[in-house]
Amino acid sequence: MSAAHWPWWLGAAGLAAVTVGSCLVARRPFGVSGIVGRFVNWREELAVERSRVAMGSADEAALEAALAAATAEAFAGMTPAMVAAGPDAKPSLSVVTEVAAPAEGACGTAAPCRSCGSPASRPTLGAHAVFLGAIVAGAFLATALRGGFHPTLALPEAYARLVAPGAWGLAALAGGGLLVGLGTTVSGGCSTGHGLSGCARFQPAGLAATTTFFGVAVAVSFLLAGRGS
Amino acid sequence: MVRYRTHLELGGLGLVFGATISGAGFTDFGELHRMFTFADPRLLLTFAAGVALAAIGFAIHCRSAGLASRPLRAGTIPGAVAFGAGWAVCGGCPGAVLAMIGEGKLAALVILGGILAGTVLGKRVMGLLRWDSGSCAS
Amino acid sequence: MPVATSSPRRCSHISSCELFPKFAMRGSLKVWHSFYCEGNFENCERYKRSLRGEPVPPNLLPNGKELNLDVLLGGRT
């Protein structure tokens, strides 16, 4: 019941603090589903991370030389015009032309870039594991502090009543979870990445996705409520 | 210490986030259902005011932070439809499911299993349809 | 504004690509930019892997070759 929960302003302050804090201190736009998604491919992610660490620890001059050698090899025997034309002769772009200003959020120089969401600031899989573990711990602390920590395997009463009790209820939990995982992966964000972070920054994808998932959730909830009564 | 700075920062953010969604009640199926059926405006107000406060925070502090933009992509809307339906049925968005586990609502482990399976499926679907996620980063 | 305003032949992954800024280190490396990032990015191995939903190694070059990290770190343990 509402009385047991935080007032709206306290919850709002917490959500806003995490959303803005994520960009200020962790240099990442806030989003949970993308982080969860990393752990699905954790073996490949770890291999990629080892390369990232190695590449980050190589000195600039060595990296530049290695890239120059790879460039010479890749474009050997090609005239500037051929290079500019590209593999399937797209409209020409002169090689000597300076590349256009980098996109928003990109670092156009070799200088270390720690802007929010830049590739240079990508946290490790371990740091993201700490983040997910801390969500569990934070919820545990909040529950334990108000004396409500009673572990249970039972389905919540409202859920059993509105969706389904017993085995069907568990099946619906798994099916709902599947839709959540599928949807957030395909959509590229969830209620945090699209909802909090995307909407607060007026991002087109965030606004469109939030309107959509909220609208669908409202429709499905009214269907569930209507079915139950 | 410097090496683990991100661990500490993300750990702190995770603690506040877990406590907030648990305290606010996003982990409570009944509360969530009352939000979606407009029976109780408290959670909706929490979310909307959170977005508004964050927008003010971004306007003040992050103007020059070089935030990556998020344009609409092929999967944005279809994915959001699936997510909305799943959220209303099981009551768990990815963050809330972890918080439910912390609260001792262990049935949420079933939702977590579903989310992980759905994420694998989602990556397959994106690959089959050749839908661009807009990033090489994971 | 977050809308892409530049050339239509511009890879959508540029802002999150780990190699794109590295190709800006020296003029002669920018050939990768005009060939792939702002040219035929559909042929970039990094882009293709990302479309398949696979993690993209930071040392994977657009032509599918990998920078040898052992050589890069040579002389150091």
Q: Could you characterize what this model shows?
A:
The complex is a heterotrimer of chains A (229), B (138) and C (77). With 229 residues, chain A is mainly alpha-helical. In chain A, 63% of the residues lie in helices and 0% in strands. In chain A, helix 9 packs across helix 10 (204-228). The longest helix of chain A has 25 residues, at 204-228. The two termini of chain A are 20 Å apart. The radius of gyration of chain B is 17 Å and the shape is globular. In chain B, helix 1 (5-24) crosses helix 5 and helix 5 (94-103) packs antiparallel against helix 6 (108-129). Chain B has 138 residues and is an all-alpha fold. Chain B has helices at residues 5-24, 29-36, 42-61, 76-90, 94-103, 108-129. Chain B has 6 helices and no strands. Chain B is 69% helix and 0% strand. Chain C is mainly α and 77 residues long. Chain C has 3 helices and no strands. Helices cover 23% and strands 0% of the residues of chain C. The radius of gyration of chain C is 14 Å and the shape is globular. Chain C has helices at 31-37, 45-51, 69-72. The chains are: A mainly alpha (229), B mainly alpha (138), C mainly alpha (77). Chains in contact: A-B, A-C, B-C. Chains A and B meet through helix 1, helix 2, helix 6, helix 7 and helix 8 of A and helix 1, helix 2, helix 3, helix 4 and helix 5 of B.
